[in-house]
# Entry
Amino acid sequence: MNQTETEFAGLAAALTNAGKDVEAALDRWLPAPAGLQGRVQEAMRYAVLAGGKRLRPFLLMQSAALFGVPSERTLRAAAAIEAVHTYSLVHDDLPCMDDDDLRRGQPTAHRAFDEATAVLAGDALLTIAFEILAGAETHPLGDVRAKLVSELAGAGGTLGMIGGQMIDIEAPVHAFGVDEVIQLQRLKTGALFEFCCVAGPILGEAGAEHERRLRDYARDFGLVFQITDDLLDVLSTTEKTGKAVGKDAEQGKATLVSWRGVDAARAQAKELALRAADTVASYGSGATLLQALPLYLLNREN
Amino acid sequence: MNQTETEFAGLAAALTNAGKDVEAALDRWLPAPAGLQGRVQEAMRYAVLAGGKRLRPFLLMQSAALFGVPSERTLRAAAAIEAVHTYSLVHDDLPCMDDDDLRRGQPTAHRAFDEATAVLAGDALLTIAFEILAGAETHPLGDVRAKLVSELAGAGGTLGMIGGQMIDIEAPVHAFGVDEVIQLQRLKTGALFEFCCVAGPILGEAGAEHERRLRDYARDFGLVFQITDDLLDVLSTTEKTGKAVGKDAEQGKATLVSWRGVDAARAQAKELALRAADTVASYGSGATLLQALPLYLLNREN
# Structure
């Protein structure tokens, strides 16, 4: 293996480990199905423990490690962001939204349970994310916990993820240009990535300058993620991704790939990945995996 | 007018004023519809500014007034609880849940907009509630803001409101006894009332003993609210309530009224209302409206 291959192998192993850690944490902090409302608690676990790349918790853990944040605190924020990400998937998959049957290679929550339970399970995952963040174990300072709550609510709201989802739903009826597609993606997927990356300096009380730098990294990373996701939708198979593919074109949605073509989109993703890596270079060897991740995504298969 | 009638007239006026104050606050803190995601922001405003009794903000304001909490702080918590209450109505009204066409005398959010927008608007109202609570203007101490977030998330989660809604959905297939009906109602509607009442002593940093007393009041109040709500469902008309009636019986749902009969349910509600009033009697004249409210509900028409 050359140096890049070695780094990618290390990255893959680190991603797997982070995934295991956050799953164990979620298993610990999600309510055990009990009593008459056990069904919704089962659905929460079904959705969130179904696997997945766990990219967001990984980003958060890597960002927190730069500032020496104790692992229990990091894990709580990582569990919260994965709960929010999963809630968004559960609601986006609903018949009235994307109407998807498969997610992470398994039946979506409303298929495995029913629509009402899926709506409630999504609501409950969003709710528990804030409960975890605000809990005393997340950080001894209330100001830090409240700041994390504010950041996550901002990233998840109508000026963030929900706004992006609303735009995405309306996308087929608009003739979006490149700028609007970038804005959509910055909100829909980018805002949560920003939360993951700034959570580190917030938990580490590192100050505004570090928050700014990690946010810059997150913005470039988010676009790399979205472009490579769009490329997958065009080029890959359901077998590899574990979800429906070819849906963007079918629905007439503009993406950076449909706008610029496969080769130009790939070139742009590479450029952004290199810039993201450069943004965190000054953190030295502690940032190796953060630097490798966007480059790794250029070759993603799911 | 006798003394009771005078008190009730004062209460009605105070409820109206509290409603106006919280609507003005929500109007100020909800995002103005703008940009490509304006539709979901419009739906949030449509749902939350459509009127309603504003009982929860009123309870919160009365509870906060006992401890001299400044009005701006109180209003932020009141706006947050009304946003959460409204999100729960928007999601409960969805076709996959109660499938209601009318709410507060107007088309439900998914009828006025569409299902996808209603799901997202509910999600966004829940999200912004936490953003408002965690904001620095809510209280100078981060610990207080984080505690409010924890309390609201607990009250709104699967051990609170969402759990109650899950049980309610499954209710028709169970043969519920009185204990299970009380548990359902304590979760589904009671948990948020508890938040409203303990938010006062939390904002006022009054300590655990006051929190306990207000929580006791809230539990009795919540049952009075639910019993009188069930009585309305049996006895009133859509014209008066602004929503569908007779649905519990139609769906075969057990309520305290169906279990005990109208007269016994009414008698129990009165007993609980008197006990609630007694619980806060020691706060003196500042608690007059809190004392009157559960008694007022005994004669509610909507």
User: Anything to note?
Assistant: Chain B has a mean pLDDT of 92.
